[in-house]
Specification:
This protein has 488 residues and is of the alpha/beta class. The chain has two domains: 372 residues, no CATH class; 86 residues, no CATH class. The chain is built from 21 helices and nine strands. The strands form three sheets. The chain has a five-stranded mixed β-sheet with strand order 6-5-7-9-8, with helices on both faces. It has a two-stranded antiparallel ribbon with strand order 1-2. α8 packs antiparallel against α9. The protein is globular and about 75 Å long. The N terminus is likely disordered.
């Protein structure tokens, strides 16, 4: 009689008497670890300005106004990002109420979806390689860059999900012609466009164009047919995006479309747009090793591949020639890096959509290493990041916490004005129900004189600057600035 213990299965996390969830390589354990990491991080890390505070303010104004077509910040048209992330946050807020917990739940679901989709892509690209598939979850969650961005209210991981859905659809269609797969690819492109505009195409199009390089025997589509399928998916994605974009165009008399697509695209490519973060062409190069941590720095990995590393040239050539999927990964990683390096505006998180491909490559290198060691490595990374945030809570991170200023604004009964360039830093944090008056720094003193019951706030005065009025709040902000509140 068998002594086998009955199996309990939940979302791929299988537990039985012989083999636990960790050894099975399900996704529940790494996703639970990710959720715990995001929750603990939120205990120590404030909502970071200017990006997180701005995006939450835009989502808050959507809920308050009931206008889900045209986003606004401080009552002014916000044409820098499409609204998909904001819609998702607002949808969760219908259940949780407009709070940070609801926003964090949204980004956790998005981050978890990117893990699930990465594993699905690995199954499509490396079929039948169960050892690799089992390692994707921990390789992704343990990736240091992914962990850092997984709990931030940003658009990049949502765009990543769209790119992955589109690529999975196209790869499935290449293997067996199905309109449903092509429709899935179109839906993924639409999600990517609604998440962050055309930026996602810089990750997807190079893979599609390189089809002859990575095509395998199991792919039944010719190069021409696959390119046509990619074009059809793109057109479908644009058509689906138009369901929102056309009403937005009409409601804004074309201003939203012009700002979102043309001004944004031209400004970020050239680096001339304000806040485009213009940087040197080599900016990404020193950051690239970080995207492979901790696995790139693991002695276990280096020892496992010691023989290969003695003669890397022939080994790499052999892998390149024998493995079309490796060629796909190389294209998916190298070409976008080159494209984004050529663009004037650069930020580290612009390369976040590379992480699934890096994670799949990492899982390939980790496939012979015990899963418990990989899970332990991921746990160490997450623990270090949580500890770093805990240590920084009272020092570095405190300089980015606008909560004291927001609480003062929320309690103030008279008129309030922000001195400087306002980016929605206080709208969500203070629960503002009306736009905040904004005045240039040069006119701050005169505004206080005209409003004897007013409160003047700012986060732009620098150390040593003379702040007009009598200070009721003065704290360090970011590196050389101060968050201040003053009255006449």
């Amino acid at each position: 009689m068998s002594s086998h213990t009955p199996t309990l299965s939940a979302g791929g996390w299988t537990v039985d008497g012989r083999l636990g969830a960790l050894e099975r390589g399900g996704l529940a354990a790494p996703i639970l670890a990710l959720g715990l990491f995001i929750a603990l991080s939120a205990l120590f890390r404030p909502i970071l300005p200017p990006d997180e505070t701005r995006y939450l303010t835009v989502a808050w104004e959507m809920v308050r106004s009931g206008d889900f077509v045209l986003p606004t910040v401080n009552g002014v048209l916000y044409d820098q990002k499409p609204p998909l992330l904001l819609w998702l946050i607002d949808a969760v807020w219908q259940i949780t109420g407009p709070n940070r917990a609801g926003a964090l739940l949204t980004v956790f679901l998005i981050s978890s979806a990117s893990v699930v989709l990465s594993r699905r892509l690995a199954q499509e690209v490396f079929p039948g390689e169960a050892a690799l598939h089992r390692r994707i979850g921990w390789a992704m969650v343990g990736n240091a860059v992914f962990a850092i961005y997984s709990g931030l209210v940003l658009f990049d991981l949502l765009m990543t999900c769209g790119v992955l859905i589109a690529l999975i659809g196209l790869l499935t269609h290449a293997r067996r012609r199905r309109l449903s797969s092509l429709a899935l690819a179109g839906l993924g492109i639409a999600l990517s466009l609604l998440a962050k505009g055309p930026a996602g195409l810089l990750f997807l199009v190079p893979i599609v164009l390189a089809y002859p390089l990575w095509r395998e025997e199991r792919h039944c589509l010719s190069t021409g047919a696959f390119l046509l399928a990619g074009l059809a998916a793109l057109l479908l994605g644009i058509l689906l995006t138009g369901i929102w974009l056309v009403p937005a165009f009409i409601a804004s008399d074309g201003a939203y479309l012009k700002g979102l697509i043309f001004d944004q695209m031209a400004g970020r490519i050239s680096g001339t747009m304000r806040a485009s973060h213009h940087r040197a062409v080599w900016f990404y190069l020193p950051l690239l090793p970080l995207f492979a941590l901790p696995w790139l720095a693991s002695p276990v990995v280096w020892r496992r591949h010691a023989e290969t590393l003695r003669k890397p040239g022939p080994a790499l050539k052999s892998v390149w020639l024998r493995r079309p999927a490796v060629r796909l990964l190389v294209v998916a990683i190298v070409v976008p890096i080159a494209l984004f390096s050529a663009v004037g505006g650069k930020q580290p998180h612009y390369l976040v959509p590379l992480i699934p491909f890096v994670a799949i490559g990492s899982a390939l290198a980790l496939r012979d290493i015990p899963l418990r060691l990989i899970a332990s490595g991921a746990g160490i990374v997450l623990s270090i990041l949580v500890a770093a945030q805990a240590l920084g809570q009272a020092t570095v991170l405190a300089r980015y916490d606008l909560t004291p200023l927001a609480r003062l604004v929320a309690r103030w009964q008279g008129p309030v004005a922000f001195a400087g360039t306002y980016q929605g830093e206080l709208g969500f944090l203070a629960g503002l129900t009306a736009p905040l008056a904004v005045v240039p720094l040069s006119e701050a003193a005169s505004w206080l004189e005209r409003h004897p019951d007013g409160l003047l706030v700012s986060s732009e005065w620098k150390t040593g600057d003379q702040v007009p009025g009598r200070l009721v709040l003065d704290r360090p902000f970011e590196t050389k600035q101060r968050m201040t509140a003053s009255i006449p």
